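Propose amino acids for all 445 sites.
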């Protein structure tokens, strides 16, 4: 829909389908089904909506609001004729939704809304207070939202019937001030990493320097303690885990956690500081409720804080043991891989091999401790020696002494490995007639 409906926050009638947030198969047909109902009620409906405070507006963005802010009070009137409605067998009620338009025309997705969003009509009107958006345009591909109000008639033992559906202009919802202009990444693990359970009991202090004097302030379980904790420069890597915040700043040490932060304080400066810190903490991991009216209907209050602390301590210890197991397993795998690498790598023993006259020559003998590699190299050397022998044996006049020498040569040659380096790139055996049958000659090129 076009958000430029002049500079007035006008509501218009809407038709189509509203898709449930939890189940896409659950849908509400927005087309009014009111002919029979209106004939029964003998009334006409002319809904109107008024907002006590105007939303933010600028020419570039249009209408906008912040997720952490209360929506202004919304008053809904049905303006029916006649003025007095007698409902003996059913109920009229109104429900407000935060929705976004989908790609398909006339289809909307329910995004949920904080607060009491469904109320019964009393004296032809109903007021909605303490409502908040549950998500932002940034988390929905920068799409703008709408407020949608549906008037429903609920007969006894029958399904709800839509009598009227109206929708607001588009609203861009920010997570915090100027969030659409600054994409600030949030380090999510800082909100989910487990903390040492001793910190639930330990004394935490804020160091404050004023007029060259150092003052240590104890972090108390109060709104002031909450502010001091997150503004203390001496406390690094502040814990943002929801269990830590709920237990350290629950405002109740006896039986229940009612609210995480209570802002019932007459000091406006403290309230402003606390709200700024809360807006910084709110993220995709969890949200902080500051008033009872924000709490969803399906919440379960936590009984017995001591039991919660014990359960968290057990969870922390199990997590530490599992991390230690994973660490040991990683070390074993690393050591095993290192041993395999050491076996595969060739360990070479280098020594000088003397000639038959017991005079050392510059020939190097290699012994491979890797048995598989040694067998492969021996087989290769046998093939090389056999090729050399077959190449020259047919043209040579071999006597018994030479055959004896050749047998000796075959045995000796297997102990040599061709060495390739910068000084001797290619090395081969010199097969021509020898000056002495007791001497082995090598030729280098």
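Proposal:
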């Amino acid at each position: 829909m076009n958000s430029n409906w002049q500079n007035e926050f006008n509501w218009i009638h809407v038709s189509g389908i509203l898709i449930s947030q939890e189940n896409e198969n659950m849908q509400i047909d927005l087309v009014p089904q009111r002919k029979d109902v209106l004939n029964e009620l003998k009334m006409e409906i002319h809904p109107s909506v008024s907002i006590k405070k105007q939303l933010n507006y600028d020419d570039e963005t249009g209408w906008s609001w912040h997720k952490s802010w209360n929506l202004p009070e919304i008053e809904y009137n049905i303006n029916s004729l006649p003025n007095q409605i007698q409902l003996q067998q059913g109920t009229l009620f109104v429900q407000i939704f935060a929705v976004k338009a989908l790609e398909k025309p006339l289809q909307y997705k329910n995004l949920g809304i904080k607060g009491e969003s469904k109320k019964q009509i009393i004296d032809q009107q109903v007021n909605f207070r303490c409502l908040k958006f549950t998500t932002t345009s940034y988390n929905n591909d920068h799409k703008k939202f709408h407020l949608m109000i549906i008037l429903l008639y609920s007969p006894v033992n029958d399904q709800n019937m839509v009598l009227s559906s109206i929708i607001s202009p588009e609203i861009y919802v920010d997570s915090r001030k100027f969030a659409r202009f600054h994409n600030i990444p949030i380090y999510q693990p800082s909100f989910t990493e487990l903390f040492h359970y001793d910190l639930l009991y330990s004394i935490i202090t804020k160091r404050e320097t004023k007029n060259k004097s150092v003052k240590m302030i104890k972090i108390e379980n109060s709104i002031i303690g909450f502010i001091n904790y997150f503004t203390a420069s001496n406390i690094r890597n502040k814990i943002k885990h929801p269990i830590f915040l709920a237990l350290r700043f629950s405002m109740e040490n006896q039986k229940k956690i009612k609210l995480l932060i209570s802002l019932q304080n007459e000091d406006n400066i403290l309230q402003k500081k606390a709200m700024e810190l809360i807006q910084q903490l709110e993220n995709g991991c969890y949200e902080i409720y500051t008033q009872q009216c924000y709490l969803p209907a399906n919440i379960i209050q936590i009984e017995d804080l001591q039991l919660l602390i014990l359960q968290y301590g057990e969870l922390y210890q199990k997590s530490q043991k599992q991390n230690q197991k994973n660490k040991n397993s990683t070390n074993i795998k690393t050591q095993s891989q290192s041993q395999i690498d050491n076996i595969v790598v060739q360990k070479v023993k280098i020594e000088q091999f003397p000639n038959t006259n017991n005079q050392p020559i510059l020939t190097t003998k290699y012994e491979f401790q890797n048995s598989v590699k040694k067998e492969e190299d021996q087989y290769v050397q046998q093939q090389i020696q056999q090729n050399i022998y077959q190449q020259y044996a047919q043209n040579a006049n071999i006597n018994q002494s030479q055959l004896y020498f050749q047998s000796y040569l075959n045995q000796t040659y297997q102990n040599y490995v061709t060495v390739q380096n910068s000084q001797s790139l290619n090395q081969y055996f010199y097969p021509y007639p020898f000056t002495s049958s007791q001497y082995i000659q090598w030729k280098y090129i």
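Residues 305-344 form the longest helix (40 residues). The chain has a mean pLDDT of 70.
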